[in-house]
C-alpha cells in the first residue's frame, strides 16, 4: 500500500493565516537569500557560496571562502525555489535557478565529485575527515535540492548531477575491500538518498542509505580510524566531535540507541532517514528504534513549543527532563527536523500524536523563528528571556533578544524557507482507501485515493477559531468510496462533525475521526473544534516547570511579554482560568488572539530593602496577565518574555 | 580613636564547634599544603612553587613552572603559618617557615624585585603587563605574608624583604615623570601596603596604596596604554581582561562605581583596601564609595549563603537580582574577601549588618568549602546541584558535586587556611571605651579597652544553641569602666541578657546591645539568643527564589540532600513550619542539628507519561523534609542538594 502526501503542484494553500507566510517566502525570503548567496547584502557576513561554485566551475579566479558546508546553502535555496515553482510557476525565478543548475553542473568534477571546499581548498584530501567536514551532508543537500528541482521543473541536468555524484559516492563507500567503511558526522545523505531512490527507482541509492545507517556507531569507531589515518589532525578548534561519539549519534549502533543524545539536528535528520528506510523496507527493528527515539524526545526532552536540544554548547540534547527555559538552545533547524521525522512516522503508522508534535513545532518554534517582515530570524528559540541579563551573564551568550538579519552559519533561514515553501506536503496523506487530514490549513488539494481522483477544499479559521469546512469534489458520478480521517487535535476534548449539515458521530482511531462512506461531489463536512484556554502543566519530573503553568489555545502556545505586562514578568502569578478572556486584536502584531486573565503581582511594598527576610508574607497586588502567541514574540522591540508562569 | 581587633596571640579559641576546624588547619591543611608546594603529593597537579624560588635563589638549575602568580601560594602558606605560630608556638613549624623566609630573601633581586615568573621566564619584561600578569598581586601576598610572619615571630628578615620590595615598587610606580602611572589587574597590593604601613609606620606605603586606588579606572585606560606599548600582545588565551575594563573594576574611578561589577574576588579585595584607606585617612568620599558597593552587594548581589559572584565565566558578578542557584560560581575566595571587607567596615562604623554578613559568609560558604577531613575543597559553591546533569549539560561544567583534592589554580584552599588560622581576629573589636563582640565563638581574649587590660572569656553553644556566657577578668581593683557591645544577630528577634544572674535590658545601637558599666573581676553575662527555624524568602525581584523558601537557624543556612530525602528534590514542597523539629544527631556528619518538617511530594501517579498535560491537578503525597546545615553538604557521597525549596 503506497502512502503519499501528494505533489505540491496539486496542493494550493489559500489560508487566511499561512498564505501570508508562504507569500513572504516567495517575495522576500528567497530573493533576499539570493542576494545573500551572491554577497550583495551590505553589513552581513559574506556568503561567497555562488562565487565558490563559479571558481570551481572555472568561470572565475579566486579561492574558497566559508564553512566546509557552504555549498549546502545554495542547495537549500534551490530546494526552496523548487517548491515555489512547483506550487506556482514563475519564469524569471526558474531562469535564475536554471542558471544555478548550469553552474553546479559545470563545477562538478568529471568523476561526479562536487564540493567546492575540497575542490578549491583541499584537493586530494577528499573523504579523509567525514567526522568533522560535512562532505556527505553537503552532498545530501545537493541531492535533495536536485530531486526537488527536477520534480518541480523536469530539469534532468540537475538530476543527472545528483545521480552521478551519488553513483560516485557509491563507489567510494561500501562494504567491499578498498571502499571506505564509514559515514558522515552530520546525517543528511541518508534521507537524501531515499529521495533519490524514489525519484529514480534505483535500488542502489536505497541500499547506500541503509549502509550508512547500519555502519553508524560500529566499534571500533570509524572516526578514530580515519583520525589516525590522517595523522590525528582535526578541522575545528577542538577535537570534541571526534572524541565525543554521541555528539553525532555514533556512540552505539542506531538500533540500540534508546535516548536522544547529542546534536539535535543530526539526531532528527537521522531519525527521518531511519523512518524512510523502515517504510521502504519494512524493517521492524528500525521502526522500533524510531519509536524509541521518538518517545524519548516527545515524552522527556521536548519543550512545550516543540523545540528540542536544550544546550547551547554542542547544540545538543542533554538528559531526560532537563529543559531550562532561559538557557535553552532550541534551534530552529532541530524543530524542522522533528517535523521531517513526524511526517515520516505518520506514513509508517498514522497516529495523531505524530501530527500533534508536527503542529506544535510548526506553529510555535518554526513560525516564531521568522519575523513578520521575513527578513529576520531566530536561530535559538528560548522560552524565557531577560534582556537585561543577556550580554551580561554569559550563560545567555547564545540568546538573541530580537531576530537577526543573517548568520555566519546560515542553516536556519533557508531551512525555514524550504519547509514553508513545501508546507502543502504536510497537510494531507493518502493511501488506497483513506485520506488523512493532519493539519487544518485552508486551500485546495487534488488527491488520489485508490483509483479515485478527488479534490478536497478546506477552509480553516485556525489558529484563531476551531471552525473548519471541508468540501469534496469528485467527477465520479457514483461518488468515491474512501475514508476521510480527520485528526482530532490533542488540544481539544471533542470535535463536532456535521456532514452536509447533519451531526455525525465518528469512530476515533489513533486520534483520527474516521468517516467511511461514498463521497459525492459537493459533500461538505463542518468541523467545530473547541478551543479552550488550556492550563498546561509540565511532568512532575521537569525541574523547570514546577509551580508553573503554560497557556495553550488551539495549536498555539502563549507567552507573556514585557510590552503588555511591564517588567519583572516573574512577579506575575496567574490565577483562575474561569474568567480568561480571549479577544482578537486586529492592531496587535498584524492581528492575533490575545488572552487576558486575572493575575497577581508579587509586591515589594512590605520589603525594607533587604535581600532576604524571614516572617515576610508574600504580598500580592491584583493584576491582569496579557498573553500573546509565542510565535509573535519580539516583534515589538526588545523586552522580557516568558512561556511558563507561576500560578497561585 | 584607634580600633583594634587584638593580636592573635591574645585570643585563644576554645570552642566546641570551631576548635576542630582550626586544629584541622594546623594538623592537616598546612602540612598537606607544604607537601603540595614541594610537589610531593601524588596524582595532583604539580605546584613547583618552592622549586621556582630555589631556582631564582640560585640553589637549583631549572625553569619556571606554573601560573604567573605561583609565588603567591607560598606567601599565603607563610601567612597562615604565621597565624598558627602566633596563636600557639611550634618550633618545628617555625623552623620550616624560617627556611622559607631564607629562601625568599635569597631569591630577591638586589634592587628588591621578587617574582620568580619574571625573573626566570621573562627577565626584562617586568612591569609590562600589569593588567594580566598579577605582578603586584603577587607582591601584595608576599607583603601580607611577611607582615604576618614578622608580627608572629619577630623575624625581621622577611619584613626587610617586604620593605625593600615595596620601596622598589614605590620607585617604579607613581605620579612622577618616568614612573609608571598604573595599577595591577588583580587588586591585593593595595591592602597589603596598608598592612605594611601599620607594621612600619612608614607613611609612604599608605600613600602608594592610595595612589594605586586613585589611578584605577582613569581615562585613557592604563591597560590600553601598556597594551600598545608592549606591541598588543596578551598573556592569556583571550584578551578580554584587557578589553573588558569592568572585569577588574577599571571601568570607572573607584569612587564612581555604584554597583559591584566584574571578578568578585578582585572587587572585594579592592573594597577592603578602600575601607582601610578610609579608616586611616578619614576620606569621606572613600567611605561613601565603600558603602555604595557594600550595599549593592548585600542587598542585590549576594547569595543567602554569603556567596558572591554568580557567573562562572569571568568568575564575576553579573547584574542586580541575578542569582541562579544551580549555575552559581560563588567562589570560596570571594566570600573570604567579603569577610575582609566586612571586618574593615566594622572598624569604620560598628554596625551589626556588617558582622551579620561576615557570619553568614563564614558559617556557610567558607566553612562549606572544606571537607571534614581538611583535605578536600570546593572552589565553586552552588546552592543547588543535580549530579546527573553535571558533566552532561555544559552549563554546569564548573560545578563539582564533591570536594576536590587540589586545583591547578590553587587560590582557595590556602585562603581558607589563612582565614581560619586568623579567626580570632574577627571575634572582637575594641576601642578606647568599647569592647565589641561580633561573633559568638568560645575562648579567652586578652583585650585592651582604653587603659584597661581585661580578659574576656566566652563560652558559646553556637551554632547549635543560642546560649553564650561571657566572663570578665580584670586586675583593676576598682573594676574597669567600658561598654560591652554585644551583637544582636539578625536571625533572632530579641536577645535576653543576664548580668550576674540579673536580667538586663540593654539599649540597642546599630545592632549591638550596649552594656556600659564598671566591670568587676568575675562579672558574668549570660546571653540567650532564641534560635528559631526561620523561613527565609528572597526579595520579590529575585527571579530564582519566587515561590521558594530557604531555611535558616541561627547563623546556619540549611539545605536538602538526596541522601536524606530521595532523588528529585524539586518535587518536595515544604509546608507548615509550626511542627518543625530540630534534633541534634550525633551520628550525622560528626554531629549536626537536623531539621525535619512536614512536606508534600509532587506525585506523578496521575500522569500518563505525557510531558505536558492540561487539566491535571497537582497531586501531592505527604512527606518529611530533612534539612542539614549547608556547610555539611556533600560529605556523604554524591547526590542532589538544594537550598531553596518550593513551598505550599
TrEMBL record, chains A, B:
A single GO molecular function term of this UniProt record: hydrolase activity
Origin: domain of life: Bacteria
Start and end residues of each Non-reducing end beta-L-arabinofuranosidase-like GH127 C-terminal domain: 535-646
Domain Non-reducing end beta-L-arabinofuranosidase-like GH127 middle: from-to ranges: 434-531
Keywords: Hydrolase
Classification via InterPro entries: 6-hairpin_glycosidase_sf, Beta-AFase-like, Beta-AFase-like_GH127_C, Beta-AFase-like_GH127_cat, Beta-AFase-like_GH127_middle
Keyword Aminoacyl-tRNA synthetase: no
GO BP: carbohydrate metabolic process
Domain Non-reducing end beta-L-arabinofuranosidase-like GH127 catalytic, chain residue ranges per copy: 10-424
Pfam families linked to this entry: Beta-AFase-like_GH127_cat, Glyco_hydro127C, Glyco_hydro127M
Name assigned to this protein: Glycoside hydrolase family 127 protein
Originating organism: Paenibacillus sambharensis
Lineage of the species this protein comes from: Bacteria, Bacillati, Bacillota, Bacilli, Bacillales
